[in-house]
Structure formats: C-alpha cells, structure tokens
Amino acid sequence: MKKVITILLLLTLIVVFQFCSKKDDTATVLEPVLPSTPYNYVVSYPTHIQVALATNDNTPPDNQLTNDGATLGRVLFYDTKLSKNNTVSCGSCHKQEFAFDDNVQFSKGFEGGFTTRNSMSLLNERFYKNGKMFWDERALTLEKQALQPIQNHIEMGLTLAELETKVKAQSYYPALFQKAFGSTDIDSIKIAKAIAQFERSIVTYQSKYDQVKAGTASFTTLEEQGEQLFLNATGPGGSTNTCATCHAPPMFIKSNAPGFSITDAGDTTGINGVNKFKSGSLRNIGNRVNLFHTGTVSNLTAMLTAGAPGTGTTLIKAHSVAPGDVEKLLAFLNTLTDNTIITEEKFSNPFK
Ligand code: HEC
Ligand code: HEC
C-alpha cells in the first residue's frame, strides 16, 4: 500500500512539474513589438555630417541601409535567441542608455564568463574605416564583425549552423527577412548584413555640438574655450598632438590614429600585436562610464583630472589636462551628447 502511495505521489509530482515547466516555456517566447510602418532609419543628415560621411562611409555597395533592413537588424541585435542558452543579446553588452556601451568594466557572457576587455560604444560605426573594428582593430568590416561575438565562447557561444537553425525556428523572422531581402531564406550572411545595417543607422547628429555647427545654437563661453583647447592645445613634453589629432571632429574619430602606447602588461595583443589600442569616437562620452580598453577610468571627469592608465609618457599625459582646463574641456565634451540616440524607440529593445 505504502509503495502505491509513493508511486502515486511521484507521478503527481512529475505531472505538476511538467505542467509548470511547459508554462514557463511559453512564457519565455517573446515576440518583438514593431510598428506597422517601419521607423525611419534612412535619415537626411545635416551638412557637416554628410561631409564626413562622404569620405568615411564604410557601407558596402551590396548592403545599402534600408528601413526594413535596419528593422530586422534591430530585432536580431536584441534577440537573446542569438546566444547558446537564450540569455544574452548584442544589446546586453551594448546598452542603448549608455550609448550602446556597457556600464561595467567587463561584460558578462552567456555562461557568466567575463570579456577580457571593456565593451565599446557602437555609435557612429559607419564612420570607421574598414579594418578598424575592435580595440585591436582586428575585424575587417561590420558585416564580418557581427558574426564574431555570436561565435565567441564567452559572449554568445553558437556555431554559424546553430545560429541559422535557431533564427529559422522563430516564427517572426521569415516575414522580416522577406521585407529586408525580398526572400524568406535565412542564412548567416543575411543575419550579419541586417545587424550591420542597424549599427550603421546609429548616428549622432542632434547634439548641441551639431546644432552649433548647423548654425542653430551657440556655445557658452566655457564650451567655446573648451573647443579651442581640444582643437589647439598640444600635450606636454614637445608633443604636437592635440586631442583632435586622435579624435577628429565632427565624429571625433580618427581612423588612422597613431595609437596610444599604454603600459598594459596584461594586454600586449593590441593593434598589430603591441599594446596600442583604437581611439574610438568621443560622441556621447559624457553619457558613458568605465572608459578605455581596460575599463579602469570611471568617467570623463576622472580622466580629465587624473589621466588615463599607463606610464608617464608624453602621449599619456595628453589624457590629463591642466587643472584650470578641466572645466572647459568638460563643458565642451558634454556638448557632444545626443540624447535622442539613447532614448529613441527605433533604437530600443523591441522585445518588451
Ligand atoms: C558579452 C558581451 C558582448 C556581447 C554579447 C556582444 N559584444 Fe560587441 N563588444 C564587446 C566587447 C568586450 C568588445 C571589445 C572587444 C575587443 O576589442 O576585444 C566589443 C566590440 C564590438 C564592436 C567593435 C566596435 C568598434 O568601434 O570597434 C562591435 C561593432 C560590436 N562589439 C558589435 C556587437 C554585435 C553586433 C553583437 C551581437 C551580435 C555584440 N557586439 C555582442 C562585448 C560584447
Ligand atoms: C595620440 C593620440 C591621442 C591623443 C592626443 C588623445 N587621445 Fe584620447 N584616446 C586615444 C586612444 C588610442 C584611446 C583608447 C586607448 C585605450 O583604450 O587604450 C583614447 C581614449 C580616450 C577616451 C576614452 C574613450 C573610450 O572609448 O573609452 C577619452 C574620453 C579621450 N581619449 C579623450 C581625449 C581628450 C579630451 C584628449 C585631449 C586632452 C585626448 N583624448 C587626446 C588617443 C588619443
């Protein structure tokens, strides 16, 4: 009798357990919420941005930006199905509210492992020369780059075959691929193209700096003094570099910056296998935390007052400025913050 009761109890438990886990399964199938007419990603930029784009645009002829392409890219960018255990998406480490950067020193991957370098802001990727992606500039194009975190064993952990199978298995993708590429066929090349289109749409052009350059606003005295320092003040020790040498306006990117010699004993695998790293865009820098490839500089004020990590070479000194200039540079650099990019729905997570 006792045996029968135990067996019955066990059976009940199994049924209850299965019922519950089934319920959980359906609860986790999230569908993206999208507008019936796609958002506008193909924007007409003000003249100073168009001029920069004319010489720096890395858009390849076979992957022009379209509203439907960027819409698909947005869904893929935020879809945790693109990781092995459905926990991590690109947006987990590139958060909209932090200018598509992370707000921690090192980012957490799908199994709780950490990246070995600080995450990077994805603003204005469209303006980097090909061959300049990642801190060590190892990725050739945005299209090629997009598939690397997906296959990275710490970040998302899938093979390309697994990626294609998982994307094909989601009910919402065929229609999105049809609109973006004119066919419901799904493969990793199209996945990469759509993600790259979404990234190329993330352009800052509505900051106070942009309004000043377009002639619709003017700098305060402090901001104006900061801009002059940024453009003209050279580093100590005979260095002819100004901030603008390595962070050139209007996107504050320098595609072929000399690179920064940083004594980072733990990371000698930077650009061309030495401890030099990419100088990324300073757009929205006031809105980002954990700066530099090490993520050890907590924010802009900390950098300007205490300098960046490394030895006391002349170049490193360029990152800490005279006490009297901190306020001016801070005022100027804060004009580079475009608040629309960190709040606009079209760049946000569609899985709500
Ligand atoms: C677990 C965190 C994590 C995830 C997930 C992740 N990234 Fe990143 N991303 C990073 C880190 C860290 C770096 C810098 C790595 C380096 O340079 O070695 C980076 C760098 C990049 C860069 C280079 C930016 C530049 O200016 O050079 C791009 C582009 C990028 N990621 C896009 C993506 C896309 C697209 C996805 C999703 C398919 C993604 N990332 C998923 C952490 C992550
Ligand atoms: C010789 C080139 C060079 C000069 C001059 C220079 N920078 Fe940089 N900057 C870099 C590089 C390279 C990095 C990234 C280094 C790293 O992470 O190891 C960087 C990083 C930064 C960062 C952190 C960005 C991030 O994405 O984490 C800020 C902020 C910054 N620079 C501001 C300035 C300011 C302000 C000046 C002038 C006072 C200046 N820089 C002068 C090359 C330069």
Bound molecules: heme C
- Overall pLDDT confidence: 86
Structural class estimated from helices and strands: mainly alpha
Radius of gyration (CA) equals: 23 Å
Distance between the termini: 51 Å
How many discrete structural domains? 3
Question: Which second-level CATH architecture of the largest domain applies?
Answer: Orthogonal Bundle
CATH class category name of the largest domain = Mainly Alpha
Task: List the quaternary state of the chains.
Answer: single chain
Estimate percent helicity.
Answer: 25-40%
Uncertain residue segments: 13-27, 311-316
Strand content: under 5%
Instruction: Name the overall outline.
Output: globular
Question: Total strand count, please?
Answer: 0
What string, H for helix and E for strand, traces the elements in order? HHHHHHHHHHHHHH
CATH superfamily of the largest domain: Cytochrome c-like domain
Describe the structure.
With 352 residues, the chain is mostly helical. The longest helix is centred in the N-terminal third of the chain and has 27 residues. The protein is globular, with a radius of gyration of 23 Å. The structure holds heme C (HEC) (2 copies). The site of one heme C has 25 residues, from helix 11 and helix 12.
